[in-house]
Amino acid sequence: MSESEVERSFEQQFVDELVPEEMDWEDVVHTYPLCALAVAAVAGFVIGRRSGRKIVSAFSDNAVERVTGMVSRLLDKEID
Asked: At what angle do helices 10-18 and 33-79 cross, to 10 degrees?
């Protein structure tokens, strides 16, 4: 197994194993919208169960950074 394969996340490997490269997703979703929605829901559930805490943590860290930056800019404007 190469180094790039080791670094790939579970989600990337999961999608690569399920989805052929030549598949036209737009056509599939247009032709079978309910099936596509069901597949997306199941994939979201699996990914969420597997990596939910990491995703929430990353989202929270990003939100804290953005709010901190906004507050800092507001305080800088009021002090000047």
From this structure: 150
pLDDT, mean over the chain: 80
Q: 51 and 11 in contact (C-beta within 8 Å)?
A: yes
Which residue, among 34, 39, 48, has the nearest Cα to 18 in the 3D structure? Answer: 39
Query: Tokens for 26?
Result: 């737009």
pTM over 0.85: no
Burial code (b: 16+ CB inside 10 Å, e: under 16) for 53-73 equals eeeeeeeeeeeeeeeeeeeee
Structure tokens at 38: 């069901």
pLDDT interval class at 37 (50, 70, 90): very high
- How distant, in Å, are the alpha carbons of 5, 21, 26 from that of 15? 13, 10, 16
